[in-house]
Amino acid sequence: MARMDPIIAWHTEHEYFHQLLALLQREVDVFHEGGQPNYELVLDIVSYLHEYADRFHHPREDVAFARLAQRCPDLRQPLARLVQEHRIIAQSGEKLRKLIQSVINGAIIPRVEVEVAAATYLVYYGNHIAKEEEDVLTRAAMTLTAEDWEAVRNAVQPGPDPLFGGGSGDRYRALRRQIAQEARVV
Ligand SMILES: [Fe+2]
Ligand SMILES: [Fe+2]
Fold first, then answer.
1. Environment class of residue 42 by beta-carbon count within 10 Å: exposed (0-12), middle (13-18) or buried (19+)?
2. pLDDT for res 3
3. Are residues 57 and 13 in contact, defined by beta-carbon separation less than 8 angstroms?
4. How far does the centroid of ligand 2 lie from the alpha carbon of residue 107, in Å?
5. Which of 24, 53, 95, 140 has its CA 20 to 30 A from that of 113?
6. How many A from CA of 110 to the centre of ligand 1?
7. What is the rounded distance in angstroms from the CA atom of residue 14 to the CA atom of residue 19?
8. Ligand 1 centroid distance, CA of 150 (Å)
9. In the chain, % of residues over pLDDT 90
10. CB of 91 closer than 8 Å to CB of 8
């Protein structure tokens, strides 16, 4: 979350993640229909979500949730669940990333294993973001103070967003191109 309105920045990152999950969903659909998914693309999506969401987005949310839970006792339980889900998302993402990397490296892995791991990750992640959007963002906007947002910003050292940050590094070039192509089609 950058130094723009923190709620807008928060929501914008969710929109970015939604775009990636939609791309991932399409590859899972191809897989489900017996086709050959773009494994490199899937690997890039899951890697980016690890590199950016797990390391920056989620730690900032953890601080925002802790502050919000102090001020809104009725939200304590759902917020605790969301924090727990960050760990589950990180673990299931890592499991999926390793699985896809193995497939790319030529390992023979049952299709169903890859499909289930990807579909589970998708459903879990999609529901997680939906809950944050529905239950948390508005309450956070109404409740958190400037000092809270400062703490949220300082939760982690700011790092560049290698995909949506406006840079042109090589690592996510193909995924960046794919996202731009989707935007032209819509
Ligand atoms: Fe989250
Ligand atoms: Fe989030």
1. buried
2. 53
3. yes
4. 33
5. 53
6. 30
7. 9
8. 18
9. 88
10. no
